[in-house]
Amino acid sequence: MSKPPENSPISFFLNGSPLSLSVAPGRRVVDLLREDLHLTGTKEGCGTGECGACTLLVDGFPMLSCLMLAAQLEGRNIETVESLEKDPVGEKLITSFEEKGAVQCGYCIPGMEMTALALLRNHPEADREDIRKSLSGNLCRCTGYVKILDAVEDTAKKLTAPKEMP
Amino acid sequence: MPTQISGNATESPSRSPMTIGLPLPRGDARAKACGREPYAADLFPENLLLAQALRSGLPCGRLLELDLEEARQIPGIVAILTAKDVPGSNRQGIIHKDMPVLVEDRIRYCGDPVALLIAENKEAIRSAMSCIRIHAEPSPGVFDLDEAMAENAPLVHEDKPGNMLAKATIQKGKPDFDACAAVVEGWFETPVQAHGFLETEAGTACLLEDGTLRMEVSTQSPFRDRLEISHALGIPFMQVHIHAPSLGGGFGGKDGATVQCLLGLAALHCPGRSVKMLWEREESFVAGYKRHACRMHYRLGALADGSLHSLHARLWYDTGAYAHLGPEVMELGMEHAAGPYRIPHNLTEGFCVHTHTPTGGAMRAFGVCQVSFAFESMMDMLAEKLKQDPLELRLRNALHRGDTNGAGVLLESSTSLAACLEGIRNHPLWQTRRQWQKEAPPFCIRGTGLAAVFNAAGYGGGVRDAAIAKIEMDVKGHFIVHNAVTDMGQGNSSAFLQIAGHILRQSAEALSLRQPDTRSAYPSGSSSAGRTTYTFGKALISACEELASRLINRAGLILFLQNDEGLVLEPGRVRHEPSGRSVSLEQLASFMSLEERVCLGQFIAPVCREVPDTSRGFFIGFPHVIFGYGAHLARVEVDTLTGRVQVKDYLALTDGGAVLNPSMFDQQVQGGVAQGIGYALYEDFITEKGVVKTKDFTTYLMPGSLDLPDILSLAPPVEEEESGPFGMKGIGEVAMNGPLPAIANALRDAGCRRIHKAPIMAEAVLGSLENR
Ligand code: FES
Ligand code: FES
User: Fold this and answer.
1) What was the ipTM of the complex prediction?
2) CATH number at residue A48
3) Ligand 2: which atom is nearest the Cα of residue A53?
4) Is residue A134 within 8 Å of A120, Cβ to Cβ?
5) Which end of chain A is more exposed for a tag (fewer CB within 10 A), N or C?
6) What are the Polar residues biased-composition ranges (chain B) (predicted)?
């Protein structure tokens, strides 16, 4: 019979703030976020690494939180969709998703945005085909991706547009 | 005193009112994009219990006994319930109540629930699951149509001889193939499709002190759920309180009981504690409803000039273990079996057959995408035989207003299929198709295919298709739309805000929307059948008009005006145009009681005025009077070495009447086409001897961003639908019907032999290239 797993202390940065907590090292990160920390913006669509709905950024790289264990967070810098509004690129993404009609049921959207955020931070010049490739691990059942691609492309354009002269 | 309350409103309207026809951003987009929208799966109330069903794993047999003692001892297990613990009828089903909440003895498919575990945590559930022994006596089952219809086949339900759940015919005229100059014939087969919504079936429930069973659940039918729960669990109807937040996708798969009765049962056993049920993806694949697999035989004849003359269609729908909406799905397929064409003679026979496999249910294009494959393939076969252009053949036969359709129904509503087809004819993707074909890269061939499709909207005859909308102005002069039809992602709630804003002349900031709640909204039917915006939208228009005139009237009283002339609603106020004086809505609200600030509106969808005597064996849902139409074009490229098919371009022209919001119109079309391309090329829910083989997204393939072209959606100039809100009609379903036949036709155009079976896999394509 299973014993309740023992907790261990871990410390990491969550959306810019340091966080220390005691958690079972084998707890899935998606559960830690959603159930323990009530950060439910990160979604679970499959639990087996196939849909991308649970994507978050670990030290800037997109990772699947359904496949990560709490112990792997130690010392890392975690970003979830809840931080987007305060992020300069993230805020642009939100606005583009809204304006370009990219959001339907919305369940895939946080994962899409986090993947796009990592891409555009490093490659603001990404074109539609780059974006299409980069989002290929994120399933969406509602949109057919057209408007999602439109949105990310729109953000990329805003990021690379020459700054207006005063 | 008038001086205190009138005068020019201080804040000038900065924001413009919402307007019908503009591509306004959806009201829910920002919250969803920020991760703030609360879905049923996102709720984690204090002191939460978890519930999970133990499923039989056996497709057919008799449940003898469950060894639960060891499992019950596991720390954290609160209760393990079986059929004996179900207080009511223990039966669920929207129309046909044949599905147990927990199995008593007969096991009819591998997902049949035999026990319900309630626990403090997931670990306890996992441990308990692994030590429950199910003692069952397996028996031979029927796992496909042939087995189910064989002589002396084992029965899925004893009261359904021959495993025949339903059998019906539509007969219009008398098919006579001898009178035809060209006759084509073929068998077609379509697979089981899974809805694949990213939010699996989920909900939380709690039995409150006053006896209310409160449930927040991912459902397309919150009002009907009360009936299901009260029937199955034997509790008073009014004690069930359902709230349906935004859904993470539905597509029909959350129409009817999924978690509801199990969750209610768990809550009844743990008063005062919230219980959550969230199906894992695998459970969703095994136990969720599915699109019916279908086998079809078609015989179609035309006169020498291409006019359709006679059709004989036979359709077999595999409905799985339980009835759910099986007969209704089949009947809608039958009603569409002759395509969106004028055809004087049609005999369509339908058979809805039980097997020991997961239950077929509602899914976008409800029985229709199956027959679309057959009739649109037949149209191309006919064009080939007659040596006619496939587009012109369709145009020649296309339904217009005033025609009778294949089911014999006189079309008195908007019917603009021809405009969609003409849109294709004039489009460069069609006009340049031969040049494009010639430019195929080495070892590739290219082809272009068409499909003309339609899909009924609404419940159809025999069921009242009605909605009651409620609009409220709060004490601050802010408006609340009380939505009563679930938003599963299609955006009806945003359309409702746009409708309310348009009529009340308010900007988006002045309006909010409450998602369906059975205690504050009114029964308005399910979110299905392309009816949500149409039916509820109409009801909402009358509610908003009533409120608008009430506000104007009150403002007139306050401003000491003789009558309402010259008073207009503007963002935040009512203004008297001649004098320029105005009253803010907040001021108005402070003079109105709650009762005065709420308006209801009701709408009942039109029904057929003269029901033709063409159908036999139908229960409800016949006939329909309003249809959305579409014409689709697919350009495909085939790798002749591997058989891989790529859809290079896709164009969909859709007749949805007037377009309320072009952006949301495209959303529905693009999403429907994407699901249709998945259906055509990738998606195949497989069971072997009743056991599910495709339980994850690695084995069940849905299209990703690299698998789809940039689907182009256009709204051609069409007739408005006079009966609909601002002239619209539902288009949630019709787009699903085009891709499979359009792609099949494109493959034929590329030089493959005709393909009759979906999904169209690379192997079949390679095979179709041999000895061409
Ligand atoms: S939930 Fe993590 S990839 Fe699907
Ligand atoms: S918007 Fe629904 S899954 Fe992407």
Assistant:
1) 0.97
2) 3.10.20.30
3) 3
4) no
5) C
6) 1-17
